[in-house]
Design brief:
Chain lengths: ~290, ~70
């Protein structure tokens, strides 16, 4: 690909988007820290003002992306400006680090767009993963997504489109505090929007089904929020931009007897074909309640 | 700020400092100012932010559904 400077001359400008993790001091990995410390300039989009101040201690030139936000400003425009702010410095030949809360590639358009754009322009760009809110959620709520499965949706998208819910698995709805927003300009929606969300969930869950509002802790001195309420009370429950709704299973796993029979037939066929083999692997059939624990 | 930042970072990296009397003694021995010590002892997030001059409000990324 032709580069802006012509030829294939490597450019000194480069971009790394790194995750700080969710909690100050607890989750920052050595590679992410090295990117921050060795950058010429660091752009920051973090979730807590104290975390932003902490980051400023790590580098002399930390530029917050917060000023790009404004009430009523289209979100797409805000994010485009953030990407351009970072890319301008990359184009100027600088080593740029974007430091983002959590994981820079999870529910974060700006790091993905910035990396893609930098690569299109011939610059080296890299994403360094971090501990996400999802990771903290599993740890704090004691959920193993491998046990009965776990589906994740962005709450508004979940409302705008017909999605197939499996009530035998966990359901996690992100950004539930802004569920139903179609303006892409607001930072919260109200109880009336959440009533519609509950109406949708009521197609698959009873009204008294316990659901948990989760917010990861961002400072070591604070605790995560883990408030469990009946589904029907969700509209009147206080929610924030960073609130996540966790809906536990309401039904047991349903065995697919037809599929199990077909697998068993396959195994019988393999056993017959391996009659010359002394030791044939024995099939393991899932238990009724779910898969065997590791 | 740097002293508080270092202290918070050490708390984040060493959770045994956060429990009961360990926490109180960690705060007391961190050599912080009285105001910082007081907000930390009661784990007052907003108070700490106000003391440090952090932003009053932080926006977070919102994934666009379409």
């Amino acid at each position: 690909m032709e580069t802006p400077a012509g030829e294939n001359t490597p450019k000194p400008g480069q971009l790394a988007c790194v995750g700080l993790g969710m909690m100050l001091g607890a989750h920052l990995g050595p590679r992410a820290r090295a990117h921050i410390e060795q950058a010429d300039v660091v752009f920051a989009a973090v979730s807590d003002p104290v975390v932003e101040l902490w980051l400023q201690q790590m580098h002399r030139d930390v530029r917050s992306l917060q000023p790009h936000y404004a009430e009523g400003k289209p979100r797409h425009q805000t994010y485009r400006e953030m990407v351009e702010a970072m890319l301008d410095e990359v184009r100027a030949g600088r080593t740029v680090c974007g430091a983002f809360y959590g994981h820079p590639g999870v529910f974060a358009k700006v790091p993905h767009d910035a990396i893609a754009q930098a690569r299109r322009e011939g610059f080296h760009a890299h994403m360094e993963p971090g501990v996400s809110a999802e990771d903290c959620l599993y740890a704090d709520l004691g959920i193993d997504p491998g046990r009965v499965g776990c589906a994740h949706f962005e709450a508004s998208q979940f409302m705008f489109y017909r999605r197939r819910i499996d009530p035998s698995a966990y359901l996690v709805l992100w950004q539930v505090g802004i569920a139903g927003d179609r303006t892409y300009r607001r930072f919260a929606t109200g109880p009336e929007y959440r009533r519609l969300l509950v109406e949708r969930l009521r197609e698959d869950y009873p009204p008294d089904h316990p659901v948990t509002v989760y917010e990861a802790a961002t400072l070591p001195i604070t605790q995560p929020r883990m408030d469990t309420v009946p589904l029907c009370e969700l509209p009147d429950t206080a929610l924030h931009m960073h609130s996540t709704l966790v809906v536990p299973p309401s039904a047991p796993l349903q065995r697919d007897e037809a599929m199990l029979a077909r697998i068993e037939a396959l195994e019988r066929g393999q056993t017959a074909a391996n009659t010359d083999t002394a030791e044939t692997p024995q099939p393991v059939i899932p238990a009724k309640a779910g898969l065997h624990e590791r | 700020m740097s002293k508080i930042a270092q202290f918070l970072e050490s708390l984040g990296a060493s959770p045994n400092q956060l429990s009961g009397t360990n926490y109180a003694s960690s705060v007391e021995s961190a050599g912080l100012g009285v105001a910082s010590r007081d907000v930390l002892l009661v784990r007052d997030h907003d108070g700490l932010n106000g003391l440090l001059g952090g932003r009053a409000a932080m926006r977070r990324f919102v994934a666009v559904p379409d």
